[in-house]
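Replying to the earlier thread about multi-chain prediction with a worked example.

Input:
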Amino acid sequence: MEFGALIKFYRTQRGMTQAELAKGICSVPHLSKIENNSKEANENTISLLLERLQISLEEMEEKEDQIKILLRDLDSKTNFYLMNEIDETYQKLKDMEHLIPFSQHIYISELYKYRYLLYKGLFAEAECQRDLLYKQKKNFSQHENYLFRYYNAIFLMWKGQYKNADDILDALSTENNNETADGEFLYHRALVKSSLQQSGHAIHFGNMALQIFMNQHNFIRILHTLMLLGINYTHSNIYEEAQGCFQHLIRNAELLKEEKLLPQIYHNMGYLQNKMKNVKEALYYYDKSLALQPNFNQHYLVTLYSIGELNYSLRFIEKACECFQEVHSLAKDLGVKKYRLLADFYLLLMNSPGKGFKYLESKVIPYFEEGNEHNDDLTRFYKMLADYYNEKGMVLEAVNYLNKIT
Amino acid sequence: MKKFVVLICSVSLLVLFTSAKGVDSQKQSHDVAYATNPLADHPIQPPI
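Result:
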């Protein structure tokens, strides 16, 4: 513990002068040097000074140990994704906040706070914490610097800036000679790759993370990793493996009472069945997912949109129309432009194909091309437009869109 | 020779455009083509 700073803090808080505190213990210049950490004082002097301030040396050392244990606990609970238990530890640390600046753990503590805020989805506060940490960057140890960059990558993932997050994680991995045994880090690498639709890489890192989580018996993260692998096996057309992942997930999520995860698993199972062209099964799983989800969140929106598309493909126009109308209003309420545009497109298409395709060209495609992260959607829409123009005999336009696909 | 090449190209283009228009007049509807389009890929990623 930084006793010099601690003594100065409590002396000021108690309204004592240096002379009053030092009287009979040491000289005023000596106390001044201790307070500024420019002189290493012996334990006896420190003990006497603290005693006069009515603070026990033993108690302080005990508290420093407590801070260390709490930080370790916070780290472990984050890694094990124990979201309900993490608040209790965080609160205990907050209760000791006034002592942390005098401990050796000041930067680690602030870094873990940053991570905690990110995990809790408190982005405005996380942003402030990031700015605060940025100013202290030059004081960080190598490990603290690593953590800061890693958490910044997680922050970028939350903001949907996957390419930038990937660059940071890639650089961190290269600096460590690709030798990390941190399951959480590998999981995040896999998640970024999955979001960038680089399925091969996502499967590679996902399997590495899974192995580590299994060795640690980190059950919740095992479920998350299996979901990630299921999605990417689906993307890579490795259907048997994907189905295996989702079946494990359905069994174990029920067992572990992961109610929040279950509708997402059903959705992704629906997505797999859809890719396998088992349309009825897909609809069955999407419906099951929707029934378990609370309204008015983004996942509900994605599932509802998928059901709309399935109904459209089955020519259940009335049902499709109902879905897209609900998607439109929900996307508007939630401020999700992507699904509002998509719902509007289908609603127009069902009413008048000409207007629908015009909207697709003028609104939807420019938005997707600008985002540069919706390649699958774009390919599908290019194909739809190429077919449309081909049917209308507008060959040049059709060829233009076909060229975009390749 | 040049005239022959130009003639062949013109004939090819004519055939291409007339055959494409032929498809349009035969189908008259978009329904079948769009119903078979592959569907959207919208999985839900696990939490960060």
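Chain A touches chain B through 50 residues (CB under 8 Å).

Feel free to reuse this layout for your own posts.
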